[in-house]
């Protein structure tokens, strides 16, 4: 076998990885290996005293589905600071080897391709900011710190030069990621290693995030300025330049932390300081804006990648007819670029639709489409912020008595309305009267490229357009606006947002279906951009995708975690309905809605700092969900509702990779400190399930709080009880007593070449001899987000009850595959002077009070997975009169699992 071929063995962390660990770290380095056959596997490394190369064997962890899993926990507490390396060697299949034969080793990876581990000197000192004493143009303003990070604020001198050199970093840099301006409308991530090698001096860096090799600290540099441009650039030899506009105060915020788990909070800390101390805006405490019930709850269809600018009534009808034939549960339609009446020089020539494409005009077209395709409840239209790509036509402006002026963007003539308030009042009033429900506003950043006025005038004009569009959108469209090509510093630092509902902003450049290299990049760019945009009161939009496409599941799985709208742009007749139904599920009264997380996902530390795209490694994202707290429960301060996690992995390269999941991955102590169950939702290992121990990384956290068990004494049921006094089971925690399920701190899951894998994590609840967890809808990508509330009641033995306990789950959606993990623990009990073995099994399942036939649910005793077909339940005689006592009787599905003695 060639050295660069590994069809049957995978290592994590792979050989592209470069780890930084502080001396005397109590957490061992965890290595994991997957093999299709049984082998002897060894880590070949100089992670030893004196740097001597040694072989350290892996331990076989699990064997399932014809493959073998190995792990190695390597304690480096005793090693001195320095740079170390590792690789992997493995034997041939053991069953073909005579026990007296010498091992014949093969090497993993390419020659001279080793992973690296840098151990930095131990220190308890706080991170230090670079000194700019030799840079007179930059003045120190303030220093602040909290439990997470240290922040330094510097301000440029308003009478200083427009650009000046800050010098080099005062410590060696390991790896960095920065967001640079891509034209006038986007931010895009770029990554690298030491000294910014290969960076273009003309790139405008708006955010720099890096880790140093001196101590392993993580640092953020954020240049900010109100109403003017301000950015960094990189020069020769690793020097950094600061750019700003003369006469304007510009600022540089540097935030540092020594804790890797806090890296994502550096941006939140910087933006919080910027708002409070530079913008000096007061927070709108207590004001909770509604989410967009059109774009965020329902699946949508957009015409762009299906038809481009050639969209017309015939093509739109063909698309809607195809969606109807394939039973695709779309409820809104977005008419993208191509519907408007425009002049030859690409300027808006009227509010009305182009009658060559839509002969009856916009109003009748909208009414006809909603009538002929009754499943389409909402229709939206696209337009550019200044009208069309090159603005507004002069004749149209004169006809409507708008003051008009000619401007230039590069080589294009741009027609600008000088009074955008009047323009948008008329435009959006016309759209509302035409039955339009929402708009997509594109090309929002191009005002800064206008050439016939100075930068300050451009920004003032830009803000007038933004304000007019937002105000008219609130007035006529109830704030249903999707913002696009607006990922630019001025919009981010000085947002103008709706007062009606949370604004939706595109989080990256477009979906490009024909460009293979763009698909991993699209997920990566959204992941990195979310580090910034997640801290704004907006909802990220990861753009449309096509369901019948080689990368369809790659995109669909990422949209499931994105927290934003989900809409497709399928060519008529080309749909993957099975894939689409993994994104939505049926509700009681609102039809099919999206299974959507309530916030943006967070990339892992390795995704941000391991040069993911160049190394063709894994993009890893995670998101969280917490159950609701019901009014009749104990106070929130006394009980913690269970948490759930969903994590996704996207392979950016042509070789299979290994994903590793632990409860600590989610950076959530309330999830990490509880026993959890991990379930592979999608990918090659779909259906695998592993019980995870609490993460040791959080055990000693001072801020852990008192995590209460869900099965605490807060239950108001008089029939509940603790374990019976004559129980002779082990004193180990209940979740550890299973003889069938192996307990580990990690789960391994494969990720196919240019493929994706999703893993859900659920909190385990315990009562007596029983451990249970709700997995949510296991046939959906984000199926645990529908879990609203769970509870478990254990019945006292003296009561004449045939059941040992009842687990109840309240769900917002239903499907044919609602999953539970049920693990019963055999116990020795004394009966009539005899010791007998007692076990528990699921005995009855009810959905909304209806008892399911045993053929409608299955329980696998070997892995503990109970699968319930919720669709098999008949409707109660009068469901509208039934209530669960918490005000959710109209919208919640209630699944009850009764456990009996075997």
Automatic annotation (TrEMBL):
InterPro entries per UniProt: Aldolase_TIM, GH, Glycosyl_hydrolases_36
Reaction catalysis annotation: alpha-D-galactosyl-(1->3)-1D-myo-inositol + sucrose = raffinose + myo-inositol; Hydrolysis of terminal, non-reducing alpha-D-galactose residues in alpha-D-galactosides, including galactose oligosaccharides, galactomannans and galactolipids
GO molecular function: alpha-galactosidase activity; galactinol-sucrose galactosyltransferase activity
Pfam families: Raffinose_syn
Keywords: Carbohydrate metabolism
Protein name per the record: Mitochondrial porin
Signal peptide: none
Similarity remark: Belongs to the glycosyl hydrolases 36 family.
Mitochondrion among keywords: no
Origin superkingdom: Eukaryota
Listed Gene3D superfamilies: Aldolase class I
Gene: POR1_2
Organism, scientific name: Mucor velutinosus
């Amino acid at each position: 076998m060639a050295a660069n071929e590994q069809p049957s063995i995978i290592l994590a962390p792979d050989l592209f990885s470069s780890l930084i660990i502080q001396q005397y770290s109590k957490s061992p380095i965890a290595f994991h290996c997957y093999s299709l056959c049984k082998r002897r596997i060894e880590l070949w490394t100089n992670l030893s005293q004196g740097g001597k190369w040694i072989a350290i064997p892996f331990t076989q962890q699990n064997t399932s589905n014809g493959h073998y899993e190995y792990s190695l926990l390597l304690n480096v507490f005793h090693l001195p600071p320095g740079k170390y390396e590792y690789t992997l060697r493995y034997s041939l299949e053991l069953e073909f080897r005579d026990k007296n034969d010498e091992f014949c080793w093969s090497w993993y990876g390419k020659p001279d391709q080793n992973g690296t581990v840098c151990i930095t000197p131990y220190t308890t000192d706080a991170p230090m900011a670079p000194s700019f004493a030799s840079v007179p143009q930059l003045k120190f303003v303030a220093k602040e710190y909290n439990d997470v990070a240290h922040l330094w604020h510097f301000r440029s001198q308003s009478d200083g030069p427009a650009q000046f050199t800050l010098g080099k970093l005062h410590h060696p840099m390991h790896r960095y990621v920065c967001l640079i301006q891509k034209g006038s409308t986007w931010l895009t991530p770029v990554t690298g290693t030491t000294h910014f090698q290969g960076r273009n001096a003309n790139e405008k860096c708006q955010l720099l995030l890096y880790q140093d090799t001196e101590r392993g600290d993580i640092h953020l540099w954020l240049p900010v300025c109100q109403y003017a441009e301000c950015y960094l650039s990189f020069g020769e030899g690793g020097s950094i330049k600061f750019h700003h506009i003369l006469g304007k105060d510009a600022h540089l915020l540097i935030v540092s932390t020594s804790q890797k788990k806090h890296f994502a909070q550096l941006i939140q800390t910087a933006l919080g300081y910027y708002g409070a101390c530079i913008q000096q805006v007061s927070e709108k405490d207590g004001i909770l804006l509604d989410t967009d019930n059109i774009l965020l709850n329902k699946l949508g269809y957009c015409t762009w990648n299906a038809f481009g600018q050639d969209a017309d009534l015939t093509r739109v009808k063909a698309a809607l007819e195809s969606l109807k034939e394939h039973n695709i549960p779309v409820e809104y339609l977005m008419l993208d670029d191509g519907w408007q009446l425009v002049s030859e020089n690409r300027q808006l020539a009227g509010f009305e639709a182009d009658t060559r494409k839509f002969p009856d005009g916009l109003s009748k077209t909208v009414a006809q489409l909603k009538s002929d395709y009754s499943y389409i409840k909402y229709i939206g239209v696209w337009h550019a912020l200044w009208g069309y790509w090159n603005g507004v036509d002069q004749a149209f402006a004169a006809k409507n008595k708008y003051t008009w002026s000619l401007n230039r963007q590069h080589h294009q003539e741009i027609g600008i309305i000088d009074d955008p308030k009047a323009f948008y009042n008329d435009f959006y009033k016309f759209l509302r009267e035409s039955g339009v429900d929402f708009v997509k506003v594109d090309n929002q950043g191009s005002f800064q490229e206008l050439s016939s006025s100075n930068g300050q005038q451009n920004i003032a004009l830009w803000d007038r357009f933004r304000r007019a569009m937002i105000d008219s959108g609130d007035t006529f469209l109830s704030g249903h606006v999707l913002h696009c090509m607006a990922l630019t510093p001025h919009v981010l630092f000085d947002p103008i947002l709706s007062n009606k509902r949370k604004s939706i902003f595109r989080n990256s450049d477009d979906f490009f279906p024909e460009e293979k290299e763009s698909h991993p990049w699209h997920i990566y760019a959204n992941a990195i951009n979310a580090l910034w945009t997640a801290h704004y009161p907006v909802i990220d939009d990861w753009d449309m995708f096509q369901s019948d496409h080689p990368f369809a599941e790659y995109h669909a799985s990422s949209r499931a975690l994105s927290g934003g709208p989900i809409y497709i742009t399928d060519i008529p007749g080309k749909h993957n309905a099975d894939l689409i139904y993994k994104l939505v599920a049926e509700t009681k009264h609102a039809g099919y809605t999206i299974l959507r997380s309530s916030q943006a996902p967070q990339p892992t530390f390795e995704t941000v700092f391991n040069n993911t795209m160049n190394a063709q490694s894994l993009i890893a994202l995670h998101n969280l969900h917490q159950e609701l707290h019901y009014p009749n429960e104990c106070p929130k301060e006394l009980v913690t509702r269970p948490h759930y996690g969903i994590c996704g992995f996207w392979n950016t390269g042509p070789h299979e990779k290994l994903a590793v999941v632990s409860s600590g991955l989610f950076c959530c102590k309330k999830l990490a400190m509880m026993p959890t169950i991990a379930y592979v939702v999608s990918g090659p290992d779909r259906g695998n399930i592993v019980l995870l121990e609490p993460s040791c990384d959080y055990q000693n956290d001072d801020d852990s709080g008192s995590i209460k068990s869900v099965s605490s004494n807060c239950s108001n049921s008089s029939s509940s009880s603790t374990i019976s006094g004559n129980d002779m089971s082990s004193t180990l925690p209940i979740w550890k007593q299973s003889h069938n399920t192996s307990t580990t701190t990690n789960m391994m899951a494969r990720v196919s070449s240019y493929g994706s894998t999703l893993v859900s994590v659920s909190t385990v609840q315990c009562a007596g001899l029983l451990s249970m967890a709700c997995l949510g809808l296991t046939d959906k990508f984000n199926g645990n987000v529908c879990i609203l509330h769970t509870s478990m009641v254990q019945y006292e033995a003296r009561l004449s009850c045939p059941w040992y306990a009842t687990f109840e789950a309240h769900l917002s959606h239903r499907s044919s595959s609602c999953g539970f993990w049920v693990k019963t623990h055999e116990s020795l009990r004394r009966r009539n002077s005899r010791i007998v073995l007692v076990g528990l099994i699921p005995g009855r399942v009810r959905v909304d009070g209806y008892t399911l036939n045993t053929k409608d649910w299955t329980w696998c005793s070997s892995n503990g997975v109970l699968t319930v077909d919720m669709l098999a339940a008949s409707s109660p005689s009068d469901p509208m009169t039934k209530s669960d006592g918490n005000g959710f009787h109209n919208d919640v599905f209630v699944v009850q699992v009764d456990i009996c003695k075997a």
